[in-house]
Amino acid sequence: MMRKGKNMSKIIDVKDLCKTYVVNKKQNNVLRNVNFSIDEGEMVGIMGPSGSGKSTLLYTVSGMDKMTAGEVTFNGKNLSKLKENEMADVRLDEMGFVFQQMYMMKNLSILDNIMLPAVKSKKGDCVGNTAGNKSASSAGTDEAKKAGNESAGEAAGNNTVKNSGTDKGKKESRKEIRDRAISLMHKLGIEDTANNGINEVSGGQLQRACICRSMINRPRVIFADEPTGALNRTASDEVMDEIVNLNNEGTTVMLVTHDVKVAAKCSRVLYIVDGNIKGEKQLGKCVNPSQVRERERDLNNWLMEMGW
Q: Which one, out of 1, 145, 189, 229, has a CA that is 20 to 30 A from the CA of 204?
């Protein structure tokens, strides 16, 4: 349903995607033969009524949840054909995640939380890395809490990890990982929080730290599920400005939101109802802040036509 422009390549291609849950012997078809694609460099918003399947779509497309039927191709890989450990590697090395609930490990500083996915990456060969042997995506769970009191940096010690960029033969030291994390924090304006605990920063700062963490392994796509849902308007605007900036620098974004102000900053919006995509709205890149209000009005009028 998406029209591809010149010199654009699909980073995500979804065909006849279905997701069904069975609860108490009753079948609930959450996604019903969903078809769409996302071009590299796009920022696509997913909107729809509560319970329409927005978050399920994001989780299934990103491989966090198994599809019931259909096909999802991510960066040339058919996700349904990957083994569980292969899928975990793709999520860690090629995807970044930002959630409404800002999961981070309580026993690590902000900086160490941001570094953790790079330490965890299997591209690294970090032998004996205590924190690195714990899943970065499990922050906040019981498993993550068992990672101990060592920081990600201390746990890495003097070990080196392979570069997570295109030059896979180059070794990347702990200092290089730390420098990249600090650079991301500087870009998002939170470098002063590096040594703070996660309970010693504001909600907006913590969400920006989560964005830094999502970018540490240089992902092809950021998947964001209601990334501003727990923030006030000022913090929400600041976080969205950073996500838009990352997109303008080339990172693809797939974002679920119920907020028109957030969705208006996307280049395209898909509207989902009862597990089916009912329509799409092309908005183009959000490069001029003075046009945001006009984009919001345009999107809101379209959503009303769709039955929002």
A: 145
pLDDT digits 0-9 by tens, 246-294: 999 999 999 999 999 999 999 999 999 999 999 999 999 988 878 899 9
Instruction: Number of helices (H) and strands (E) in the chain: give both, helices first.
Output: 10, 12
Name residue 228's amino acid.
T
| Contact (CB, 8 A) for 69 and 16 | yes
Distance CA 178, CA 281 (A): 40
Tokens linked to 236: 């929400």
| CA dihedral (281, 102, 244, 220) positive or negative | negative
Q: What is the model's pTM?
A: 0.82
φ, ψ dihedrals at 95, nearest 5°: -125, 150
In sequence order, what E strands does 76-128 have? Answer: 77-78, 95-99
**288/270 Cα distance (integer angstroms):** 22
Helix (H, G, I), strand (E, B) or coil at 149: coil
pLDDT in tens, 190-231: 999 999 999 999 999 999 999 999 999 999 999 999 999 888
